[in-house]
Design goal:
Elements lengths: L2 H10 L1 H15 L19 H45 L3 H43 L2 H19 L12
Helix pairs in contact: 1-3, 2-3, 2-4, 3-4
Length: 171
Amino acid sequence: MSFMTTRLLAVCIAAALLIGPVAGIARAQGPAGAPGGMAGGDPLGLTADQKKKMDAIQKKYQPQIEAMQKKWQPKFMAVQKKYQSEGEKLSKDQTPAGQKKMQALMQKVQGEMKPLMTAAEKETKPLQDKVVKEINGVLTPKQQATLKQLMAMQQQMGGGPGGPGGPGGPR
């Protein structure tokens, strides 16, 4: 997945990033602590009741998340498409000059993306705040802290700002 697609998902469906891992864990696991399901067990230790509530939160907000994605994805993809060919060519040039050109291209792309990102973040913030409030109402303080750590790890692995790749895709 390209850098801009990754950024799009991180920004435009920030609420989905909060709901998705938790609801995914809820669906992948049997009763809390049961073997099977997701590798590594259930890191949140969700109860059956919590899993049911998390699925309900996801179901409740999914239409809004999809509407935001439908609105913003074409805008982000247009910028990606505009620079994709040049990025693909530059990604093959591993010389210092090629890398410098890639950095210049990334700055150009980031400059064009910044107003889109700002607008998308502004629009998604109220929904994200609602989702966080509801999720926090379901989770214990310890589970909230664990979820926060999981989300930070997801961003570091490419699910948010600073993710891998560039206009030409993963590098």
